[in-house]
Amino acid sequence: MKKFFTSIALIVFSTAIVLAQPKGMGKSDPEGKKVLDAVSAKFKSYKTVTAKFSLKIENAAGKNLGVKTGTVYMKGVKYRISVTGQEIFSDGSNVWTFDKAANEVTITKLDPSANSLTPQKLFTNFYEKDFLYKLNGPVKVGAKTLKEVELTPIDKTKPFHKVLLYVDKNAISSTKIFEKTGNRYTYSTTSLTPNAAVSDATFVFDAKKYPGVEVVDLR
Fold it and tell me: 40-49 pLDDT, tens per residue?
């Protein structure tokens, strides 16, 4: 779970706005910042976001290890992530992690610290002080010409050494993560609907809808 959610942090909702870099770590590209600022500004204009995504996993040799699909909903500080075998709900205060195979849900308090991870942060300032970035320039992907932004983690203990973001019309269409093990994860947005009606109940786990579910409350 933790590894998947860490990876989802670099999903299509990623943006890397580094406003202050530690001394001695080099500087980020101002042109890259313009691109990422525009992505962030566009997201902040939405009241709600519903997006479908796919995740492709490859090994170091480029062999396809599988594809997963999922959906994410966001409204203010609330979010819900649905992916094969698992769902994560948050009403802004609590987090429910539901394991479908085990029919078990774990409840924790949402960590309000700056280090806590929510999909909303991925659209805005999650990467502040964490990455150096540069604009590699336009690249052709299918029939589209996209802007490629390369991210390098400042913390060299991270399990990945590079992330590529592909931006189309101030929105990130895909994200490619390069792990030190050689594995590569490519997240692609298959659809994104802003400002759709999403009820607050969407972000709360309702045990009544899951007969026999085991509840592990760690709050």
Answer: 888 889 999 9
Give the helix ranges, DSSP H, for the chain.
2-8, 30-44, 119-123
Q: What is the pLDDT of residues 131-151, one digit of tens each?
A: 888 999 899 988 899 999 998
Judging by DSSP bridges, how do beta strands 171-179 and 86-90 pair with one another? unpaired
CATH number for the domain formed by residue range(s) 2-217: 2.50.20.10
pTM, whole model, 2 decimals? 0.75
Arithmetic mean of pLDDT, 182-208: 93
Left, alpha or beta for 213 (phi > 0: left; psi -120 to 50: alpha)? beta
d(CA 157, CA 65): 25
| Alpha-carbon torsion angle 88, 196, 54, 216, nearest 10 | 10
Domain boundaries, the chain: 2-217
Q: State both tokens at 155.
A: 């913390």
Using alpha carbons only, how large is the chain's radius of gyration in Å?
18
